[in-house]
Write a structure and sequence with these properties.
Peroxisomal Thiolase, Chain A, domain 1, globular, about 30% helix, 11-stranded mixed beta sheet, about 400 residues, alpha/beta, single chain
Length: about 400
């Protein structure tokens, strides 16, 4: 097992999803168990499913200086970066450390592929993209990070992580290494993914998409509901005085099942290793965790494996839930959005329930709760167990 790491403070954070823009909208939905899922109205021939669509993305107009980056994914990132004073927090860090000392690590699963899909419907007689789509900076997996770096005015190390559903959870691990090795003094982490045809029809071809709102851990669950979201956090070394922040990243764990292209390991070996490494780096036993944000996609195998893992590793008093029923499975943005939910749980003493779920599968333990609860949360664990078995667990906690 790895040794403990020095904590990093979370100086600012935000998330935008189907339940609204920013932390207040998210916290209100969690407290009221209000889902943002709706009948699918995305695309020319919508699949009969439910989605977590963010209102207002189509109306966003980027400034002229950023117009070359225009696509649905970057518009959603723009919305997310404007919320909760996040841009101002990054500006203050830039002033403190210098632009070249702030790293950027963003996760995305599809990046701006929706714009590339659109471009292929607009080919001219020679089979070429129309002039307005001849923008290589958009048709690349690194588009989101390049856009965000220009918008934020930072020039430190820049990474795009694309490991399916664990993408924007693993950003915290990469940021910790960059800061620990002295390559940066702070890091903007996060991610964004928007709905697109490749995602909706791709998951549907795998028979993973539900025809009703997803029901994580339900005995009658039928599959996932896809969504879109953007979230960001500013992490830096623990500060003192006026610059101190009450929320810390304490540990992370990463592992790959190396079992199957799409199916998780039947015994959750990779997921358990990621969980164990996160606890080891945080110096905590499972009994210390007050809240677990489970990956909980509502697919048969994913829920089965994770539910069994939580049941055998954590005491019955631990409050665990899946929040996929609020905004859907946001793919490359799931890790950051659920990290934000874990931070809100610590900050506000709010442990969300599992919406849309009626009857828990009898194979799962008492840790999984359907209703929200209030109480002190000193330590929270967030699991992101990605498609194909790429796993990441994060441990957050209150400042000592």
């Amino acid at each position: 097992m790895p040794s403990r790491i020095s904590p990093l403070q979370i100086s600012a954070y935000t998330a935008t999803s189907a339940v609204g823009v920013g932390k207040e909208a998210l916290a209100d939905a969690l407290a009221q168990s209000r889902s943002g899922l709706r009948a699918n109205d995305f695309g020319d021939a919508p699949l009969p499913t439910w989605i977590g669509r963010v209102e207002g993305v189509e109306e966003v107009r980027l400034p002229e200086s950023l117009a070359q980056w225009d696509c649905r994914n970057n518009r959603l990132a723009w919305m997310g970066l404007q919320a909760d004073g996040f841009i101002d927090a990054v500006a203050a860090a830039r002033e403190k450390y210098g632009a070249s000392r702030i790293a950027l690590v963003l996760g995305t699963s599809t990046a701006s592929i929706g714009e590339t899909e659109l471009a292929y419907t607009q080919l001219d007689a020679q089979g070429m993209f129309p002039p307005g789509q001849r923008r290589p900076e958009v048709h690349t997996p690194h588009s989101l990070a390049m856009f965000a770096q220009q918008l934020l005015g930072i020039s430190g190390p820049s990474e795009t992580i694309s490991t399916a559903c664990s993408s924007s959870a693993k950003v915290f691990a990469s940021a910790e290494r960059l800061i620990r090795l002295g390559l940066a003094d702070a890091a903007v982490v996060g991610g964004a993914d928007t709905l697109c045809g490749s995602v909706l029809f791709g998951f549907n071809s795998l028979e993973l998409v539900s025809s009703e709102p997803c029901r994580p851990f339900d005995a009658a669950r039928k599959g996932i509901s896809l969504g879109e979201a953007a979230g960001f956090a500013l992490v830096e070394r623990v500060q003192t005085g006026a610059d101190a922040a009450p929320l810390h990243l304490l540990g992370y764990g990463e592992a790959s099942d190396a079992h199957h292209m799409s199916t998780p390991h039947p015994e959750g070996l990779g997921a358990e290793r990621a969980l164990d490494e996160a606890l080891a780096r945080a110096g905590l036993a499972p009994e210390a965790i007050d809240y677990i944000n489970m990956h909980g996609t509502a697919s048969q195998k994913n829920d089965e494996v994770e539910g069994a893992l939580v049941a055998r590793r954590f005491p019955a008093r631990t409050h665990a839930s899946s929040t996929k029923g609020f905004m859907g499975h946001t793919l490359g943005a799931a890790g950051i959005v659920e990290a934000v939910i874990s931070l809100l749980a610590i900050e506000r003493g709010l442990m969300p329930g599992t919406v849309n779920t009626h009857t828990l599968d009898e194979g799962f333990g008492p840790q999984i709760r359907l209703e929200p609860a209030r109480g002190e949360v000193r330590y929270a664990l967030s699991n992101s167990f990605g498609f194909g078995g790429n796993n990441c667990s994060l441990v957050f906690g209150k400042a000592a």
